[in-house]
Amino acid sequence: DIQMTQSPSSLSASIGDRVTITCQASQDIREYLNWYQHKPGTAPRLLIFDTSNLETGVPSRFSGSGSGTDFTFTISSLQPEDIATYYCQHYGNLPYTFGQGTKLEIK
Amino acid sequence: QVTLKESGPALVKPTQTLTLTCTFSGFSLSTYPIRVSWIRQPPGKALEWLARIDWNDDKFYSPSLKTRLTISRDTSKNQVVLTMTNMDPVDTATYYCARWRVAGGGFDYWGQGTLVTVSS
């Protein structure tokens, strides 16, 4: 299985801050990497697919980049509604695996 | 409008078999290239992919759970069913069904999730 190492596991930031989360794959997954936002009591929401593509309806402050084994997810200006846990997920091959998650809190 | 909804027991006993149903609308599982997966999340832990069924009835399983899982579909009812045998307290989790994006990657539509507790 491909392992996804996500960091940090938690992050405290202020409104308006630039926030960056990284995800490292244990082997080359090209650009087969997605990012989700998950708020308690709700279903996960796809934000970024195929490393850098913004899902329909997702605000442009969210972005993603990378390729191969190293990937980055960025919120350019943190908003109160962005408080959630964020997960990366690869689909280079089966089984799909998710990162351990980054819990984002307001400072 | 695409929707998915999970249903099944909230409580199962250890060693029992869990059966979960995902009822969906807004797409057909017999149409290329639709794929539906089951994913779970134990309390306080990360998401874990379990199984997938495709438009052509191909089925795929997490290697670590393969011997315990069966995924099937009823296209006339727009349902995907997951069975998991020999349930254990560590299987306590919220179970989600989700559709894979038609173009590109990612699970674009998810059900609300159903919490299953394994306890005697």
Helix content of chain A: under 10%
Strand tally of chain B is: 11
Major β-sheet annotation of chain B: 7 strands, mixed
Q: Provide mean pLDDT of chain B, rounded.
A: 97
**What's the helix-strand series of chain B?**
EEEEEEEEEEE
Strand count, sense and barrel status of the largest sheet of chain A are: 7 strands, mixed
Fraction in beta strands of chain B: over 45%
What is the CA-CA span between the terminal residues of chain B? 40 Å
Beta-strand residue percentage of chain A: over 45%
Shape of chain B: globular
> Order of SSEs of chain A, N→C?
EEEEEEEEEEE
Which word captures the global form of chain A? Answer: globular
The helix tally of chain A amounts to 0
**N-end to C-end Cα span of chain A:** 36 Å
Alpha carbon gyration radius of chain B: 14 Å
Average residue pLDDT of chain A: 96
Content-based structural category of chain A: mainly beta
What would your notes on this structure say?
The complex is a heterodimer of chains A (107) and B (120). Chain A is mainly β. Chain A has strands at residues 4-7, 10-13, 19-25, 33-38, 45-49, 53-54, 62-67, 70-75, 84-90, 97-98, 102-106. Chain A is 0% helix and 50% strand. In chain A, the strands form 2 sheets. In chain A, strands 2, 4, 5, 6, 9, 10 and 11 form a 7-stranded mixed sheet that branches. In chain A, strands 1-3-8-7 form a 4-stranded antiparallel sheet, with no helix packed on it. In chain A, a hairpin with a 6-residue loop joins β4 and β5 (45-49). The mean pLDDT of chain A is 96. Chain B has strands spanning 3-7, 11-12, 18-25, 35-41, 48-54, 59-61, 69-74, 79-84, 93-100, 107-110, 114-118. In chain B, β9 (93-100) and β10 (107-110) form a beta hairpin. The radius of gyration of chain B is 14 Å and the shape is globular. The model of chain B has no long low-confidence stretch (mean pLDDT 97). The A-B interface holds A 1, 32-34, 36, 38, 42-46, 49-50, 53, 55, 87, 89, 91, 94-101 and B 37, 46-49, 52, 60-63, 96, 98, 101, 104-108, 110-113.
